Amino acid sequence: MAPDTLAAPPPAHDTATTPPGPAISLVDVVKDYGGDRKGAANGAAVRGVDLDIGEGEFFSLLGPSGCGKTTTLRMIAGFEEPTGGRILLHGRDMVGVPPDQRDVNLVFQSYALFPHLSVADNVAFGLRRHRVPKGEIHDRVDRMLHTVELADKADRRPRQLSGGQQQRVALARALVNRPRALLLDEPLGALDLKLRQSMQLELKRIQREVGITFVYVTHDQAEALTMSDRIAVMNGGLVEQVGPPREVYERPATAFVAGFIGTSNVLSGRLADSGTGSGAEAGARTGVLDLGDGQQVVLPLPEGAAAGSPVEVTVRPEKITLGAAPPTGRVSRIRGTVEEVVYLGTSSSYAVRTATGTELTVFQPNDGTAALTPGRGDTVWLTWATAHSYPLAPAPAPAPAPGPDAPAPR
Amino acid sequence: MSRPPARRARRRPVAALAPYLMVLPGWLWLAAFFVAPVLVMLSLSLQTGDFIDGFRQTFHVGTYGDALATYHTQLVRSLLYGGAATVCCLLIGYPVAYWIAFRAGRHKSVYLFLLLLPFFVSFVIRTQSWNVVLADNGVVLGPLKHLGLLPGDFHVLATPYAVIGGLAYNFLPFMVLPVYVALERVDPRLLEAAADLYAGRAATFGRVVLPLSLPGVFAGVLLTFVPASADYVNAAILGGPSTTMIGNIIQTEYFTNLDYPGAAALSFLLMGTLLIAVFLYARALGTEDVLEVAAR
Ligand SMILES: Nc1ncnc2c1ncn2[C@@H]1O[C@H](COP(=O)(O)OP(=O)(O)O)[C@@H](O)[C@H]1O
Ligand SMILES: [Mg+2]
């Protein structure tokens, strides 16, 4: 296998020089499948998405089922026309350009391999349509089949392969064309857990090798976190947050993101004072949520927050430590009762019910560093560093507003 | 603990027989309605005698040679007409099936029903109505001749065109339905995948849709060719003396000439010819690939 040849720039059927700027841009993209059925006026599938996806980036669209991920991907591939907004591929406006003339390839969730063609013929399909010389087709198909470790299966029919092998054929069939970007719609969704995990590593390796842009759709947050350079978290046809995995995980921008990615604890209340953070976090302005009875949450002050304004704060379970006595000073402290202890091997998970009725989840490592390992029914104090309190942005309007030029629903 | 093995041993013969018992009704059916009549016919074809004095089993094989020598023209003509009608059915039926499968949208079942609607009328009456339509001074040719657009002696009936056209008309659904079923089974995602891999409309059809529909075409050709070649109604109603098919000869031998051995021998000749034709066709086109896709 020769990674250097795989990474060769795409043939010159597109602009020869790589234009500066993002590989894929979505500008206020809207897709409304239309009210061909009455009552379908409950909003569009995609309600105004702005994305800039960089050259060579592994970019994930993450969100629950029905949030518009597939629709977004199919608009980039050209199978759906956006109702509004613009899609730019390497700076070129793609409106009205059919899929067979776009320099991107889609890996279908169901693979959509041609059942009447051998593995090699499946992989060669795109090259033949581009009238690549026979010898070159042979070489490239051969090399690609080696890359996905299916060289010995070249003459098989797709039906004679396992799910994981079919998945790799689908990948090879798209990659062999050296598209500027590869679009993948839940490509591992049909595989069992073990195979999925090994394919995740495999996909990542191949992406590094060929060095092209991957747009990866998944509803599996763990998959998105482990594979992506950046993640766009989608909900209800909107992008709620875009950022690297660590940022999206540790500093979720909205309550939805916090809840969708990992386990998260959300506390809400009103800002008691907007005093200066003269304490531990010198320099940063901090605020306090007073939960009464000596309990409080200290948080970095959100911009423009005034005393008395309502805020929601999230904190990740592994950032919380448990103690027997309330910590002193300007730190977060909440009292609660342990309701459940789950041993997870390297860590333990505690479900703690606070005095205000909120259930919080706490992870503590089982490596002996934990100050306290309480049992069920014990009263404990929860504390965490101010930097781990993340104020959430107010949720975007959940009710789908009709587009500005859309006729009002009767 | 010695009992269960004993019981199992007793049960085993029944269990082993079960599959055979289950297909028994099928075998009985075949024996009663196919094997027995064929044997009776075979025996009949080897008898000699005449209707008045009765037929006697003499194992006279010569009837076959005589029948072939006398009627080989009609036998060959039957295959030609059947083949021509099949080609017509394919040329008309494939686009029809394609259109219903991919373009008819929500109204697919309506169009399929319309396709089958003529079946609610008797085969003979449907064919007879073409006789009326195409009559020498009928609703079509009459006015055209009256206006001087066609010569007075122009006719369609009693020509090969009329017979082949009638066969194509009558057997069209046998082509359309299997092709439609094959096309209907083509996953629309495959069409998108082809488009994604730079195939335009023509390449998508030629490289994906057509190969995947071949099993349907294969079945449709068989279902059309065999009954069309053996048909006698169309030649009897729409044809003339020069378009006689082997089916008409057999019918005449049986019901007019009362030459039972001759008619039986001709029936076997027709059956043998069709089997050979179908076998050659299957050898040429029914490759493993076609059947493999069909079995998917
Ligand atoms: N072809 C279509 N016609 C009408 N509505 C559709 C179509 N495809 C998707 N939708 C709707 O658009 C929304 C988003 O769907 P989709 O993009 O498939 O979500 P996801 O891939 O995130 O699960 C869903 O509510 C779905 O019902
Ligand atoms: Mg989807």
UniProtKB/TrEMBL annotation, chain A:
Keyword terms: ATP-binding, Cell membrane, Membrane, Nucleotide-binding, Translocase, Transport
Region (Disordered) location: 1-21
Pfam families: ABC_tran, TOBE_2
GO molecular function, one term: ATP binding
Catalytic class of the enzyme: translocase
Biased composition (Low complexity): 1-18
Highest rank taxon of the organism: Bacteria
Claim: Oxidoreductase is one of the keywords in the record: no
Catalytic activity: ATP + H2O + polyamine-[polyamine-binding protein]Side 1 = ADP + phosphate + polyamineSide 2 + [polyamine-binding protein]Side 1
Cited SMART domains: AAA
Domain ABC transporter: 24-261
EC numbers, comma separated: 7.6.2.11
UniProt entry tagged with the keyword Chloroplast: no
Family the entry assigns: Belongs to the ABC transporter superfamily. Spermidine/putrescine importer (TC 3.A.1.11.1) family.
Task of the protein: Part of the ABC transporter complex PotABCD involved in spermidine/putrescine import. Responsible for energy coupling to the transport system.
Subunit structure: The complex is composed of two ATP-binding proteins (PotA), two transmembrane proteins (PotB and PotC) and a solute-binding protein (PotD).
Protein name as catalogued: Spermidine/putrescine import ATP-binding protein PotA
Gene encoding the protein: potA
TrEMBL record, chain B:
Record keywords, A-Z: Cell membrane, Membrane, Transmembrane, Transmembrane helix, Transport
Coiled coil: none
Pfam hit, one: BPD_transp_1
Top-level taxon: Bacteria
InterPro entries: MetI-like, MetI-like_sf
Transmembrane stretches, start-end: 21-46, 79-102, 109-125, 161-183, 204-226, 262-282
Gene3D superfamilies (UniProt xref): MetI-like
Domain ABC transmembrane type-1, chain residue ranges per copy: 75-281
Membrane topology: Multi-pass membrane protein
CDD domains cross-referenced by the UniProt entry: TM_PBP2
Localization per Swiss-Prot or TrEMBL: Cell membrane
Family, as annotated: Belongs to the binding-protein-dependent transport system permease family. CysTW subfamily.
Protein name: ABC transporter permease
